Structures are given as structure tokens and as C-alpha cells.
Sequence to fold (224 residues):
Amino acid sequence: NAGVTQTPKFRVLKTGQSMTLLCAQDMNHEYMYWYRQDPGMGLRLIHYSVGEGTTAKGEVPDGYNVSRLKKQNFLLGLESAAPSQTSVYFCASRSGDTEAFFGQGTRLTVV
Amino acid sequence: GQQVMQIPQYQHVQEGEDFTTYCNSSTTLSNIQWYKQRPGGHPVFLIQLVKSGEVKKQKRLTFQFGEAKKNSSLHITATQTTDVGTYFCAGAAAGGGADGLTFGKGTHLIIQP
Fold:
């Protein structure tokens, strides 16, 4: 019962570096999401996908790109990391209008 | 766009006291979901409310969905230390849409033994 798996769990980047966060789900869900969580801000939607090959912008998409080449995977990329992108990133998936399943989170620090 | 307001942001209670968090949406919702996040953990689904005026119970937790489907509440009776965490409501806009759930900012429940 893997559910939603995120890698890596922790990462420290220098300003200007790039990285990719991987999200994998084994529940055959159509919808996948990337959120960031900051103190006092709750969960804010970065990008989402309604199916393989499709992506869309959420509430705070600037500075991020995503790709969904396979139904089970949703990648979040930071091309040039900035300190403002220090956050905890959560991936989630769901099927239709049902509950969302979250990954364990990735704690990213940009110095 | 849709906004979901949640209050209070923090709630300190003595163990054994009751706790309530409230959620209000700027638009009519298709359904509302509640999640719990333990410190250092990830959000975990608790329940989904769909019908106008719906009330659901899970042991000491009572969830309500307003008649207008724009507000909701979570009430915990006789809190225990295991209830510590952040409780989020998340609204799905009426008319459907795959653009996810709009989360409230959460209520942090802090319990003093």
C-alpha cells in the first residue's frame, strides 16, 4: 500500500540551482496536485493535472514547472531556486470528486 | 476565485475541554472535506460532507455542513492529547472541476495536559 510517494524527503539548494521533485501514485488516480505549505498560509495549489499529458496552473505557479508524462507520475521542477521557495511541498492525488491522498512531503530549503 | 476562510487560526485548550473550528466559503460548495495534519506529518482525510445540513459523527468528532452549503464546522468533544494537530477544511466548488480543493489556512489545536 504505497499510495502517494514523494522523493526526495529533504533537500537543501543554493539560490539559482535547479531541481525536480517526483511524485508517484499507485492508485490509478486521474487528478494529481502539487501544493506548498508555509506557516500561517495553509496549503496553496501550485499546479495540477487532470490526466496524462495535461497540466494547469494553480494559485501560485510562478517559478515552477510541471510535467505528467505518465499517469502515475507528476514532476515539479524549480529551474532557478529562490529563498522564497523554501517550503514544504506536498503532492496529492484523487479520483473524481473524492478524498485527496497526500504524500509525506518534501522539505526544501533554499539558501 | 473561491476563498475558504477558517477560524480560529490557533486554539489552546485544556485536555478534556471541547474544541470547534469553523469554515466559511465565499461561494457555494459541491462538498466539503476535513483533513487532519499531525505535527511534522501530512494531511490525512477525515470526512466528506455533501448534502445541505448534513451532520456526521466519528466517535468524539462531529462535522456539520451548513444549509446553504457555504459553511462547515468540526467539533471535538472532550479533547485528548492525540487530537493535537492542524485541522483543515477543503471546499470543492459547485459545478465540479478538477482544479483541486481550496483549503482553509487551518486551525492549530494545542492541548495542555
Notes: Chain A has no helices and eleven strands. The two ends of chain A are 35 Å apart (CA to CA). The interface with chain B takes residues 30-31, 33, 35, 40-45, 48, 50, 56, 58-59, 90, 92, 97-105 of chain A (CB under 8 Å).
